[in-house]
Amino acid sequence: MGQTMLAPAHIPVLVEETIQALAVQPGGRYVDCTLGGGGHAATILEHSSPGGQLLGIDADPEAIKIARARLEAYSGSILLLNENFANLQAICYRYDFVPVHGILFDLGLSSLQLNGNGRGFSFRHEAPLDMRLNPDQELTAADIVNTYPEAELARLIGKYGEEGYGRQIARRIVQERPIKSTLQLARTIEQVIGSRRRKIHPATKTFQALRIVVNRELENLESALGQAVNLLGYGGRLVVISYHSLEDRIVKQFMQREAKDCICPPGTPTCVCGHTASLRLVKKRVIIPSPAEVQMNPRSRSARLRVAERVIAQDEHYQIVERLCSSTEVKANAWRRPTLLKKLRQVFLTAA
Ligand SMILES: C[S@@+](CC[C@H](N)C(=O)[O-])C[C@H]1O[C@@H](n2cnc3c(N)ncnc32)[C@H](O)[C@@H]1O
Predict the structure, then answer these.
(1) Dihedral angle sign, alpha carbons of residues 286, 289, 290, 294
(2) Is the pLDDT of residue 233 over 80?
(3) Ligand 1 centre and the CA of 146: distance in Å?
(4) Rg, the chain, Cα only
(5) Is the pLDDT of residue 227 over 90?
(6) Does ligand 1 have an atom closer than 6 angstroms to the CB of 36?
(7) Which residue lies with its CA nearest to atom 27 of ligand 1?
(8) How many whole angstroms from 107 Cα to the centroid of ligand 1?
C-alpha cells in the first residue's frame, strides 16, 4: 500500500467534458463505475453539491483505499464499494440507489495500476505476470501464457490485442515457457517483432490482450451497459470514456442500437423485433481531448467519450400512462398534458 500511495497520481481525462456530458446538477445522484483514483468522482461531487450523492465502484481494492482518502471531505455523500461493474444493477438495488441522474464508465487502467504497482500490467516494470484487477479472481496472465495451447494463445492475442503477429508471438511464447515475469514476456515479444513496429512498444498489443482476457473486460462492459440503462431516470445520462477500438466499438454499437425504435435487419418489410428506443444520442460524434490536454497528459491521447440520455421507451410509456390513468389524481386533473408530463418525470426520477 505504501508503495502505491507514493506512485504519481492519476490525472483524470476529459474532466470538463465529462461533467457537461453527465449534466451534473446539485442534489443529483451519480454512479462512478470506475472510481480509480477518485478524480472524476471528486469533480462530480463538487458540481452536485449541495445534496449530491455518489456511488463509486472499483474492482481493485487498492483503488478504493486511495479514492476513499481523496474523497474524505465528502464522506457523508459517498458510498465506495470494491465491486465489479458487471454486478451494477444488483449493487444499485442492494443499496437502494435507483434511479440515478448519471452513470460514468472511465474504462481501462489508472496510472496507479500502470506505473508498476507490482501487479504486472506494465511491460516497463518487472513484476510477476498477474494482471488481475481484483487479487481474488482466479485466472492470472501467467496461467494463460504458460498453459493455453498455442493456437488459442494466437487467437486471443490476435482478437483482443488486434495484433497482426499473434501467431508468431504465440509460437515464441510456447518455445520460451515457463515465462514468469512481465519483462521476460516483453523480451520474448520483442524478439518476434524487433524493430518492425516503431510507433508503439512491441508488447503493447499482447499485454492489452492478456489484460482483457484475465479481467473479462469486454464481456463485463457489454453486460454493464445494458444494466446501466435500466438504472437511469428519465433524462439521466450515460457517459463512457474508452481507450481502444474494441471498447469504443462496443459502446458505439450499444448506444446506436438503443437509440433506435426498430432493430430489424435492413429490408425487413414490417418490424418484428418489438424493440423501442431507450436512449437518445446527446452527441452523435465522439468527444476527444483537446491538443492541450494531450500535451499535458499524453495518456489521454486515445480517450473517446460517448454520451447518451435515457428516454422513455414506448412500452414503458404505455405502462406508465395506464398506471396514471387509473390514478384518481390524474382523473381529477382531466388529463391535462402538463400534469401528465410532470407525473411522468416524477415516476422516473423518484420511484425506487
Ligand atoms: C481509468 S481508471 C479510472 C480513473 C478515474 N476515473 C479517476 O478519475 O481517477 C479505470 C478504473 O476502472 C477500474 N475497473 C476496470 N474494470 C472494472 C470493472 N469491471 N469493475 C470495476 N472497476 C473496474 C480499474 O480498476 C481502474 O481503477
Answers:
(1) negative
(2) yes
(3) 27
(4) 23
(5) yes
(6) yes
(7) 36
(8) 6
Q: Whose CA is nearest to atom 13 of ligand 1?
A: 34
Tens-digit pLDDT profile for residues 192-208: 988 666 678 999 999 99
106 lines ligand 1 (CB under 6 A): yes
Residue 71 in contact with ligand 1 by CB distance below 6 A? no
Residue 90: CA count within 13 A, CB half-sphere: 7
- Give the nearest ligand 1 atom to 241 CA: 1
As a whole number of Å, the end-to-end CA separation of the chain is 38
- Cβ of 58 below 6 Å from ligand 1: yes
Q: Does residue 50 have a cis peptide bond before it, meaning omega lies within 30 degrees of 0?
A: yes
Picking from 248, 210, 231, the residue whose alpha carbon sits closest to that of residue 130 is 210
Distance of CA 164 to the CA centre of its chain: 26
Express each pLDDT in 244-286 by its tens digit: 999 999 999 999 999 998 899 888 888 888 888 999 999 989 9
Checking if the pLDDT of 5 tops 90, the result is no
What average pLDDT score do residues 49-65 get? Answer: 96
38 lines ligand 1 (CB under 6 A): yes
Give residue for cell 492519476.
10
8 A C-beta contact, residue 254 and residue 281: no
Q: Hey, whose CA ends up nearest to atom 17 of ligand 1?
A: 59
Q: What is the pLDDT of residues 92-149, one digit of tens each?
A: 999 999 999 999 999 999 988 888 678 999 999 999 999 999 999 999 999 999 999 9
Query: 3-class SS at 274?
Result: coil
Which residue minimizes the CA distance to atom 2 of ligand 1?
A: 110
Q: What is the DSSP string of 4-67?
A: HHHSPPPPPSSHHHHHHHHT--TT-EEEES--TTSHHHHHHHHHHTTT-EEEEEES-HHHHHHH
